[in-house]
Amino acid sequence: MFKSQKFFRFQKKSARVIKIMKKDYKAYLGGSVIMLILISAIFAPLIAPADPYKTNVTKRLEGPSLQNLLGTDSLGRDILSRLIYAARPAVLVSFGGIIISVIIGIILGLLAAYVGGILESIILFIFDVIRAFPPIILILVLLSIIGPSLLSVIVILGVTIMPRYGRVVRAETLSEKEEDFVEAARSLGADNSRIIFKHILPNIFASVLVLSGMDMASMIMWEAGLSFLGLGLQPPLSSWGVMLQESYQYIQTAPLMILWPALAIMLTMLGFSTFAESLRVALNPKLNQEV
Predict the structure, then answer these.
(1) Quick one: 189 exposed, middle or buried, by C-beta within 10 A (0-12, 13-18, 19+)?
(2) Is 206 within the bounds of a domain?
(3) Residue 209 is part of which domain span?
(4) Can you give the three-state secondary structure of 42-61, one letter per residue?
(5) Which residues cross the membrane (predicted)?
(6) What are the percentages of helix, strand and coil residues in the chain, rounded to 5?
(7) Has residue 4 been placed in a domain?
């Protein structure tokens, strides 16, 4: 009975969120961009018109044409194909980094708020140590020690932004664990794990979801910036940051070469940001008149 009631409440809340987002153009705009990026990343070998790594120096720095819709780069590679393949590391870094941040942040935040005591002090100290360093300095130092690679970028970015998730979860949990329904569950004999995962976590996950959506855009920017500096993906692998790095020296002779990856980064960040904003409004009844 209780499970059916919880499912009904979840279904009702989901229907309300979807109804609100259907009326928001930001949801359509952001969702369309996100779907385009995901499709490009998943089906890149089927969508790309040419081999992104095949060079042809006789066609280097050519402008858009029927054979190469966005032109070619300094090695004669098809720019459109490289843009499509570059969606893969962008998706991997954004989703991978967010997943690491969310999982670690939720675990530490819940432990800090629910257990308290010396464990809370230790966890908060870890958060403070990570946040004490400017993100760019911390990321650059760790990457210079570990070495540039896709996996190292994902892990380091995930750990760097993890404290914000931990603090959000801790604050939400401190508020939720004093609610009447938690006290009722405890009086009925529910153990701590059941209270945390069945009663507290579902009520705080909306905040984590909105925050993660907004951080997706930052992750893509970080991946492109680190690759541009030579600390992310390495050539000849295709990345929007690598494409910016390779085209920077040709900005005077072939300006379109740097324009395409810059547009890809901008539109992807805009898509994630607008969709996250729409989701934030839909999940917060105070920002909407509809119930």
Answers:
(1) exposed
(2) yes
(3) 77-287
(4) HCHHHHCCCCCCCCCHHHCC
(5) 27-48, 83-104, 111-130, 136-161, 204-233, 253-276
(6) 75, 0, 25
(7) no
Q: What is the pLDDT of residue 4?
A: 41
Residue appearing with tokens 């395409």: 260
The CB-based long-range contact list for 249-255 (8 Å cut-off, 24+ gap) reads 250/61, 250/74, 253/61, 254/61, 254/63, 254/71, 254/74
Distance CA 170, CA 117 (A): 13
**CA-CA distance, 259 to 244, in Å (whole number)?**
9
Q: What is the pLDDT of residue 101?
A: 93
Tens of pLDDT, residue by residue over 25-46, are 788 888 899 999 999 999 999 9
Q: What is the CATH number of the domain that holds 103?
A: 1.10.3720.10
Q: Give the number of other Cβ atoms within 10 Å of residue 61's Cβ.
A: 17
> Is 129 inside any structural domain?
yes
Q: Give whole-number Cα distances, 19 to 7, 29, 192, 204, 235, in Å.
A: 18, 16, 35, 21, 45
Concatenated DSSP letters of 111-173: HHHHT-HHHHHHHHHHHHHHHHS-HHHHHHHHHHHH-S-HHHHHHHHHHHHHHHHHHHHHHHH
Taking the CA atoms of residue 190, residue 194, residue 195 and residue 197 in that order, the dihedral angle to the nearest 10 degrees is: -170
> In angstroms, how far apart are the furthest CA atoms of the chain?
77
- Give me the number of domains the chain comprises: 1
Q: Specify the pTM.
A: 0.83
Query: Average pLDDT in the 207-233 region?
Result: 86
Tokens 């729409």 locate to 278
Question: In this structure, how many other beta carbons lie within 10 angstroms of the beta carbon of residue 291?
Answer: 5
* 149 backbone φψ class: left, alpha, beta (φ>0; ψ -120 to 50): beta
Could you read off the pLDDT of 141-180 as tens digits, one per residue? 888 888 888 888 899 999 999 999 999 888 888 887 776 6
Length of the chain measured in residues: 291
Residue 141 covered by a domain: yes
